């Protein structure tokens, strides 16, 4: 019965995740463990700007595949088109734009609807061409635009496009490991 209860809670309410890469540093470190709340998303609440979410990326996301035919290989042009097929793996990133938002990126800083956002949690972006957009994009309906906090070392929506809201699993609400990092996000 106890195992059944644990399984039901993990399936419906909360689920633990281990951070696999440095793409969310300094907010989340490699090996850190977080709890993802799934109830509000299952009840229809959409992610908000600033939320750290776990989601399924489009197929090919780790290889930086964009569904936008205007994005050429090796160019810093942002991907503005969501993928059509969902991968089985999970990623964790921060929502920086929701449907209808106009997003720009300048030296790793998000400009949302013409205003620079306050992001004291990000790691400075090197002189990487992917840290600035040559043009802005508008986030399509029923999607979110996600970026890693470590913009110079993150595969994210810049390369494979916005994420459909129904591919979002839930919102990371706290860290439980290591003990020195216990707390909310």
UniProtKB/TrEMBL annotation:
Catalytic reaction annotation: Cleavage of hydrophobic, N-terminal signal or leader sequences from secreted and periplasmic proteins
Record's keyword annotation contains Ribosomal protein: no
Keyword terms: Hydrolase, Protease
Origin: domain of life: Bacteria
Gene Ontology BP term (one): signal peptide processing
Classification via Gene3D superfamilies: Umud Fragment, subunit A
Bilayer topology annotation: Single-pass type II membrane protein
Classification via CDD domains: S26_SPase_I
Subcellular location: Cell membrane; Membrane
Domain Peptidase S26: 1-177
InterPro entries for the chain: LexA/Signal_pep-like_sf (IPR036286), Pept_S26A_signal_pept_1 (IPR000223), Pept_S26A_signal_pept_1_CS (IPR019758), Pept_S26A_signal_pept_1_Ser-AS (IPR019756), Peptidase_S26 (IPR019533)
EC number from the UniProt entry: 3.4.21.89
Listed transmembrane segments: none
Record's GO cellular component terms: plasma membrane
Molecular function in Gene Ontology: serine-type endopeptidase activity; signal peptidase activity
Positions annotated as active site in the UniProt record: 23, 93
Family annotation (PANTHER family): CHLOROPLAST PROCESSING PEPTIDASE (PTHR43390:SF1), SIGNAL PEPTIDASE I (PTHR43390)
Family of the protein in this entry: Belongs to the peptidase S26 family.
Protein name: Signal peptidase I
Organism name: Patulibacter medicamentivorans
